[in-house]
Amino acid sequence: MADVIKRFVAGAVCPRCGEMDKLVIYRQDERDYRECVSCDFAEEMHFGQPAAELETRANRDLGRRAIKFVDAADKNK
Ligand SMILES: [Zn+2]
């Protein structure tokens, strides 16, 4: 099994239970997912760009840039 590193998204609010700072993002099988550690919310994230770029941005600054990235994706649904 490959290591799955889950990173908290600071300031993100879970769409299901509404708890803040409970969302984690992680990558598995070439796909990006986010899930809540407070409830059982989990979904695959769909970005219109390569996952490698998400990985880079998230690693560089897990804080506010990651939040913006998530918000932008939600608006495109
Ligand atoms: Zn939740």
Give an overview in words.
This protein has two helices and four strands. It has 77 residues and is an alpha+beta fold. It has a single domain, classed as N-terminal domain of TfIIb. A four-stranded antiparallel beta sheet has the order 1-2-3-4, with no helix packed on it. The structure holds zinc ion (ZN).
Write out key terms for the chains shown.
alpha+beta; single chain; 29% helix; 2 helices; 23% strand; N-terminal domain of TfIIb; globular; four-stranded antiparallel sheet; 77 residues; binds zinc ion
Helix content: 25-40%
Structural class: alpha+beta
Total count of strands: 4
Spatial ordering of strands, largest sheet: 1-2-3-4
The portion of residues forming beta strands comes to: 15-25%
In total, the number of domains comes to 1
Largest sheet, described in full? Answer: 4 strands, antiparallel
Identify the bound ligands.
zinc ion
Question: Which regions are unreliable across 5 or more consecutive residues at pLDDT < 50?
Answer: none
| Helix/strand order, N-terminal first | EEEEHH
Molecular shape: globular
Computed Rg: 12 Å
What CATH architecture do you see? Single Sheet
**What's the CATH topology name?**
N-terminal domain of TfIIb
Name of the CATH class:
Mainly Beta
| Cα end-to-end separation | 32 Å
| Average predicted local confidence, pLDDT | 77
Q: Describe the oligomeric state of these chains in a short phrase.
A: single chain
Q: Quickly count the helices.
A: 2
List strands and helices in order, with pairings.
Elements: E1 7-8, E2 23-28, E3 31-36, E4 42-45, H1 51-60, H2 64-75
Antiparallel strand pairs: 1-2, 2-3, 3-4
The structure holds zinc ion (ZN).
Zinc ion (ZN) binds at residues 14, 16-17, 19, 22, 36, 38-39, 41.
